[in-house]
Amino acid sequence: MGNPEIPDETEVAEMIQSLADWLSKQPHLPRIQDDKVLLRKFLVNCKYRVQKAKTKIDQYYSARTAHPEIYLNRDPTSAAIQTISELCPVFPLPRRTPRGELVFVARAEPQIEDIIPMDYLRYLTMVLDVLLLEEDKLDFLVVIDYRGYSFQHFLKFTTIAGLCTELMLEVYPGQYKGTHCVNVPPFIDSIVALLKRAVKPKLRDRVHVHTQLDTFHDVVGKDFLPSDLGGADGSIKELNDMYRKKVESYGDWLKSQENVRSNEELRPAASRDSMEMGIEGSFRRLRVD
């Protein structure tokens, strides 16, 4: 028997055509209605909800207009991106969890003076775009390795925390399954406790602080993890270097996407009124499925 939550191919084709028809009537969005592979990815990662897929597509291309400081000058071979991608590893692991989730690993090296937060966000969008091109199912969880993390790191990354969350949870398709913090210094535990009070219960319950790697392994599994985190795969540095090379291989495509974005001057009034994200961002309205 098939999965009752997954429509059959005829229904999926009709949904994709519905998205294409809708896009053809949206003068402010890029002409992507013929890219059925991309439309399918948005549909699948929005749990086959056509209206949600429309909203996500709009958010994805509107974010590029709303945040040119992130989406322009995305040259993975530039000195700035080379530096930030080395000092602040952020990449999906080659293998998924036993439940089929993608795992993002994030860490920051001690050279705090060379870390530029906006460059980090620029590189993060490159990683996410490459992932969208290569993967069909984008359910994901985040693992933050705080080894070597200082209070100065916290102060610096606080400036982009809201926008980083918006990108991960609102702009890109995929189902967020949780964040796991490992190797945490004492001050992080206190900060996370404070932050949990400020977010919705559903989001709060998906943030986990592990004082021991054993409890982390009990929750997410072990073998697919980097060796630094007790797994059987390569080190975080080795895996990060591999993904950096992958992002570099998409350099021409990334540059070609700079003008593939919304034109807010052409946005219909009805769309502007109902837009969930809006050109000003949506951090205050973050939803978690």
**Computed structural class:** alpha/beta
Number of helices: 14
Kindly report the spatial arrangement of strands forming the biggest sheet: 1-2-3-4-5
Distance between the termini: 26 Å
Poorly predicted spans: 276-289
Largest sheet: 5 strands, mixed
H/E topology pattern: HHHHHEEHEHHEHHEHHHH
Helicity, as a percent range: 40-55%
In terms of quaternary structure, what is this?
single chain
Shape: globular
- Report Rg: 19 Å
User: What would the average pLDDT be, to the nearest integer?
Assistant: 88
> What percent of residues are in strands?
5-15%
Please tally the β strands and state the result: 5
Pfam family, one: CRAL_TRIO
GO cellular component, one term: membrane
Domain CRAL-TRIO: 80-237
Protein name: CRAL-TRIO domain-containing protein
Tell me what the structure shows.
The chain is an alpha/beta fold and 289 residues long. It is built from 14 helices and 5 strands. The chain has helices at residues 9-24, 36-45, 50-66, 68-71, 79-87, 117-134, 151-158, 161-171, 186-196, 201-204, 213-220, 236-249, 251-256, 269-274; strands at 90-92, 102-107, 140-145, 176-182, 207-209. Strands 1-2-3-4-5 form a 5-stranded mixed sheet, with helices on both faces. Strand 2, helix 6 (117-134) and strand 3 (140-145) form a beta-alpha-beta unit. The radius of gyration is 19 Å and the shape is globular. Residues 276-289 have low confidence and may be disordered.
